[in-house]
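Q: What does the assembly look like in three dimensions?
Context provided by user:
Components: two
Sequences:
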Amino acid sequence: MKKTSSFVLCSFLAFLLCAVLFHTRASVSLAFEAEQGDRSVLNTIAYQGDIATLSGRVSFEIRNGSITTNLQETKSYMEAKHLAQKAVPTDHTNDPFQLLLYDLNQELTPWEKTQQNVFDHCGEEQQSYASASIGYLLYHEREVSIDTGLSLHANDQLSITRKRCAYQDNEYQDAVTLSSFDHERYFRKEALSVKTDNVSYFMPLQTASVHGKNYIYRIAENLSVQPLVELPEGRAYEELHLANDQLIILAHDDEAFYVMIYDQLGSLLKQISYPYRYHGASMQSFSTTRYLLWQDDTTCWIYDSVSMAMQELPLSDTSLHLQAAAEQQDDLFIAAQQIQDGKHYLHISAYRNGERIYHGKILLLEYRETTEQAVKYPVDIVEWGYFVR
Amino acid sequence: MNEMLTMMEQLCKDSLRSIIVGSLMLLPIQYLLAVCYPTLDSFLMVVLPFLLIFALLNLIHARRCRTMIQQQAYQRYQLLPIKNYCVLLSEWLFTSASYLFLLFLQYISWFLIYQQLKSSFPMQSNTFYFFSLSQLWLHPLMSFQFFDLIKILLLLAMLALNFTFLHMTLALKNYRGLSILLTSVCCILVIALALSAKGHLPLLGIMVALTVFAFLELCDLLGIRRGGQPYEKDK
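A: Here is the predicted structure of the complete assembly.
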């Protein structure tokens, strides 16, 4: 063959070879490690999660006991730059409840509760408040405002400040900045609600900085809001769940942890308590049709709504944090996350009658702090995922 | 086909060596940058040398076309009993092949850069994947998915045609303004495709339309279209 023709053919074949080689090598492979039990128990359920970076997002799925990965999107340079520079404003449009904070003494206009860094610019002037009244706005066909009678009080760890801030083109609005861990939680999980076929129940999150009597509220189909149960004072109310038609509340005070079980008419069916010392850790809890699971510090507990009994659930490691739970054919499946020496593990376990019948872990990411010659890399995020049918 | 390959052999073989040597310069430049400046942004380490070599390749092609016209090689081939689109296709194919060769070297260079920098990369699992994914400037050159490969080949073919139009018009000193405008718009579209995540299809559509226009103009210029006048030296 002549020189030029050979060059054309070789260039094309070499390019194709390299592109295919790149495509083969540039894929995420995940595998189960340290398995105990028969993995076939996972055949009845699937699990989905994401490994997201500023430059792209890879989803993974566990189905029929095998793991598949898929590149969902690659970010463009402009998108990644935008993401790196600015926090994305929280989209509240899908939240059924929006927390409103009012100035008790002066005005009734609710403040825009948000994190200051989502705004493009804020004024210099700021005002501090000792307390603020807590209300909720319910978005469902029409707006319904709920006055809870609770109030938020500033203390050593919490400050309530208000600034005039604005997005790029919008008018200035009041932005309330809350400090301290307690109020980080307010931004994530401000109202706890459960829904049956035609009735919803909700309970404001109550922490040590929130004073006043707390209630479980019942929201009827016509959006009328009635307090259903007055809750004991002096407790921090962390979670509200619905399992097997029981309203289950997780609460604690300085000495004990409480599991309070009500029926849907507001009668207390049972209260379980155990000694507990709050360390300020964020609590995770998950409910299935039958079970409620939660983790305080290092212990994982499970409440069975049929037998109305609570027991400790053995996790393979105390450094695990509950991530998701699901129930399928009398088997309980739990996903837990573990970050150890920069390794991000996802643990999948299956339980039958309180006994663990399967456990396996998957290394999602291994992240290592590098030396001064570190290559610049956008922040990585593991979105740990959830169970799907 | 044989006529076209023969034509390509005759018209292009003289610049083959300079194209190969010029493209091969990519490897030492990028590798040395990776060794000496490991924290350099991927634009400066990879994309800028790539663009410089790309520009150099086009200079070589433009010079080749100019020599071809000056030595009246093209005019002589017009007198031969061969199909009149052979010159256009051979030029397009050779330009595309030179770009493919450069992309092939870019992949090789990327593998070398990865070997050099992987130890200082924070992600230690699936490292090659995340290393490549983190280099945002390189996404347009990398085939993460099968569709990317198709897109790269399509863009490359369109760019090659537009640049062929530019090389020929510069050599023939005809339609120069139009070809410079078309090629510039195509380059801007390629950059827009590289930088934006959305609107790929409209951008690709505009680029296809411009390329078709460039192709028709090139056919006119070379006298391939019915009614088109072949180039004459004293025109």
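Follow-up: The radius of gyration of chain B is 20 Å.
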